[in-house]
Each structure stands twice: as structure tokens, then as C-alpha cells.
């Protein structure tokens, strides 16, 4: 699928997205749907669409065949022998959760224990050619009602950009995401961000670090939010324990599925750490899973789950995800709550394989 406009981050620019989609058909004949959030290149994490195919076909499906599954939660243990590859695991697990909820005749959000009938959403804006272009984009997003603005930063496109945005929009809920573009050597520079009343700074330092983040958090007033560094419940426990962050961005694919996402959510609730749901430029199926997860009570901050039309000319679900007054109405139909747009799915499908379990 081709993005309406390229999305630029500190680590690279996205123009298209290839998707690995899973349809799992239960004995009842009902289908559950999952979408891997992996990208085509290993820039954000080491996984790619192609590594997903290898891991799913050669390792995860054989594990599924070993014994019946009684509840989607069972998959955490079943997949535990396979290290990491969390996006591949989450793609299958998401389809199993959808199937489970549909067979229970329940919306996925309720099956997960969610409570909200509407969720608050923000938007993540990629690096723009100029501050003027960014300010214009932000204005459009605010007109559409988004409740929080996130802008991407990188060295050379940070303090001055934030300053220009703050001049124009002094009170807008604003945050920045560096996607690991800095090191501790930049801490004096990063501390200048404390002047701009930012909600948080997301993942300033290395993707595999938490020690340096803890050092930086002690020097900065702005709360640090971890994204790339949190790949498991254990990671969340350690990061919170050492003070590496005050906020956590939960992405279902990054942590290996909805069950682990829920565990991290519950742990953060106990620790008083606010969480929000991150985005991976999802198509409709992944977006629907994000919406269901965000209904859990500790998701107290608006996430990155914008409307379908922000990314795509045509989405693979029907209806598409729409945002009104910065809110998404959570669907009450069973499972993910959206129908699959079979015409769009057929149009975008380049390769399909059926596997008997
Ligand atoms: O770091 O949250 C991120 C997009 C691609 C890779 C990483 C990230 C992002 C975003 C966009 O910030 C989130 C979205 O709108 O889906
Ligand atoms: Mg991020």
C-alpha cells in the first residue's frame, strides 16, 4: 500500500508499506484477522516482512500444531522457545484474539477487559522540509481535532523546530520523538527541550539502551517515554525500576502481542506510569487492534492511532477508521469490530498461501 505522503523519521523515510496479513479460520468457520506491523527494512527493529514469513512458516506454525489452544493467552508460553521476533508472534496472536472474541460474540476490546466506548487520539507528524511546512501540517491536524501533536526530531532538526512550533502554538499538547537519534554526549543539547513544556520526549537514546536513558532522565525535567527499548514486560519492569522513563509507549507488535501488551499495561497501572498506544503506520486490521487495546484504563494519554484517511487512499477494512473531535468511537461488533474490505484486500494482495493447521 502506498502512503498518501512519505513519512520521514530520524532513521529513514517510508513511502510504501508491505503487509503480512494473517487470516485464521476456526473450526466454526469464523475468521480472525491479524496484521504484522513489520516494515520491509530492519530500521526500527531487526524484523522485516520477509523475516516474519520465515519465522511464522518455519517456527510459529509448527508450534501452533503441537496442541490445541484454549485461550489466546496460551500463545505467550507456546511461542516462548522462539526468541524475540515479536512482530511475527503478534501477527498470529492478533488473529487468534480476533477469532476468540468473534466466537465469544464479544467485541475484542471487551474480551481484553477494556472499558472505554471512545478513545482519545493524537497524531505523529514526520520530519518536514521546513518549520513553515510543519506548522502548516500541525494546523491541519488541529483543525481535524487531534488531541495531541507528536513531531519527529533528529540532530539539526530539533530545538529550533520545537521553538518555532511553540511560538505558533504555545498551549497545544506537544511531544517529540527522536527514534534513538542521540547519545548521552548530546545531553546538554537535549536539556534545552525543557524550556518548551513538552508532554514528553520519546526514545532519545539508543534502541537497546535503558541505562543511559536513566542518566538522561535525572538531568532532564521533560519526561522520557520509551518506545524501542521496551520489548517485554521484563523490559518495562527494569526501565521503571531504574528510572529510565516516566511514560511507556506500548506497541502490540514490538512487545509480541495483545497479552503481553495487557501485562505491561497492568504493571504500569500498579506503578502509576501512564501509557499510550504507539503506531506503526498500520493498515485497518492493525489499527483496529490498537483501538481495542487503547480502551484499557491506564491508556490515559492520547496515542498515535490516527484515522485511516491520514495514511491511505483506501483501507482494507470497512468502514475505515474515522476520527471525530479527536476521538475514535470503539466498534461494538464482535472481534476487531470492522469488516474486511475484500475488494481492497484482493486488489492489494500480491501473494497468498493457505496452510492447514
Ligand atoms: O517511533 O513511533 C514511532 C512510524 C514508523 C516507525 C516508528 C514510529 C512511527 C510513528 C508513526 O511515529 C506512528 C503512526 O502514525 O502510525
Ligand atoms: Mg516512537
Structural notes for this entry:
The active site is at residues 152, 251. It comes from Scopulibacillus daqui. With 357 residues, the chain is an alpha/beta fold. It is built from 14 helices and 15 strands. The protein has helices spanning 49-65, 74-79, 86-103, 108-111, 131-143, 159-168, 187-191, 211-219, 233-242, 252-255, 258-271, 284-294, 308-311, 342-348; strands spanning 2-9, 12-16, 20-25, 31-36, 118-120, 123-125, 149-152, 174-177, 201-202, 224-226, 247-250, 275-277, 317-318, 327-329, 339-340. The strands form 5 sheets. It has a 7-stranded parallel β-sheet. The longest helix has 18 residues, at 86-103. It starts with a strand and ends in a 9-residue tail after the last helix. Magnesium ion binds next to loops.
Bound molecules: 2-succinylbenzoate, magnesium ion
Query: What is the helix tally?
Result: 14
User: How would the global form be characterised?
Assistant: globular
How would you write the strand order of the largest sheet? 6-7-8-9-10-11-12
Instruction: Summarize the main sheet.
Output: 7 strands, parallel
Q: What is the terminal separation in angstroms?
A: 29 Å
| Structural domain tally | 2
Question: According to CATH, what is the class of the largest domain?
Answer: Alpha Beta
Mean pLDDT: 97
Please count the beta strands (DSSP E, at least 2 residues each): 15
Secondary-structure content class? alpha/beta
Strand and helix order: EEEEHHHHEEHEHEHEHEHEHHEHHEEEH
Low-confidence stretches: none
Estimate percent helicity. 25-40%
The CATH superfamily label of the largest domain reads Enolase-like C-terminal domain
- What CATH calls the topology of the largest domain is TIM Barrel
Structural Rg: 20 Å
Which CATH architecture of the largest domain is right? Alpha-Beta Barrel
Amino acid at each position: 500500500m502506498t502512503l498518501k505522503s512519505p513519512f520521514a523519521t530520524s532513521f529513514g523515510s517510508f513511502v510504501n508499506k508491505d503487509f503480512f496479513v494473517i487470516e485464521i479460520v476456526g473450526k466454526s468457520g469464523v475468521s480472525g484477522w491479524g496484521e504484522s506491523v513489520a516494515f520491509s527494512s530492519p530500521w526500527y527493529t531487526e524484523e522485516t516482512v520477509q523475516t516474519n514469513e520465515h519465522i511464522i512458516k518455519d517456527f510459529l506454525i509448527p508450534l501452533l500444531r503441537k496442541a490445541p489452544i484454549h485461550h489466546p493467552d496460551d500463545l505467550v508460553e507456546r511461542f516462548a522457545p522462539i526468541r524475540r521476533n515479536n512482530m511475527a508472534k503478534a501477527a498470529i496472536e492478533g488473529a487468534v484474539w480476533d477469532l476468540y472474541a468473534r466466537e465469544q460474540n464479544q467485541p475484542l476490546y471487551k474480551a481484553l477487559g477494556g472499558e472505554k466506548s471512545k478513545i482519545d487520539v493524537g497524531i505523529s507528524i514526520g520530519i518536514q522540509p521546513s518549520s513553515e511546512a510543519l506548522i502548516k501540517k500541525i494546523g491541519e491536524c488541529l483543525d481535524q481535532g487531534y488531541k495531541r501533536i507528536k513531531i519527529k526530531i533528529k540532530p539539526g532538526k530539533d530545538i529550533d523546530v520545537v521553538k518555532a512550533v511553540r511560538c505558533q502554538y504555545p498551549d497545544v499538547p506537544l511531544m517529540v520523538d527522536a527514534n534513538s537519534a542521540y547519545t548521552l554526549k548530546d545531553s546538554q543539547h537535549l536539556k534545552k527541550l525543557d524550556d518548551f513544556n513538552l508532554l514528553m520526549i520519546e526514545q532519545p537514546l539508543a534502541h537497546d539502551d535503558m541505562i543511559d536513558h536513566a542518566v538522561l532522565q535525572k538531568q532532564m525535567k521533560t519526561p522520557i517515554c520509551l518506545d524501542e527499548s521496551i520489548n517485554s514486560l521484563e523490559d518495562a519492569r527494569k526501565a521503571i525500576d531504574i528510572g529510565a522513563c516516566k511514560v511507556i509507549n506500548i506497541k502490540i507488535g514490538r512487545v509480541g502481542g495483545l497479552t503481553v501488551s495487557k501485562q505491561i499495561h497492568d504493571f504500569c497501572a500498579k506503578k502509576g506510569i501512564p501509557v499510550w498506544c504507539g503506531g506503526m503506520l498500520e493498515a485497518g486490521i492493525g489499527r483496529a487492534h490498537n483501538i481495542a487495546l487503547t480502551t484499557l484504563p491506564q491508556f490515559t494519554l492520547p496515542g498515535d492511532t490516527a484515522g485511516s484517511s491520514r495514511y491511505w487512499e483506501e483501507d482494507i477494512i470497512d468502514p475505515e477508521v474515522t476520527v471525530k473531535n479527536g476521538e475514535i468511537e470503539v466498534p461494538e461488533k464482535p472481534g476487531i469490530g470492522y469488516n474486511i474490505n475484500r475488494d481492497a484486500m484482493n486488489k492489494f494482495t500480491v501473494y497468498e498461501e493457505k496452510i492447514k493447521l
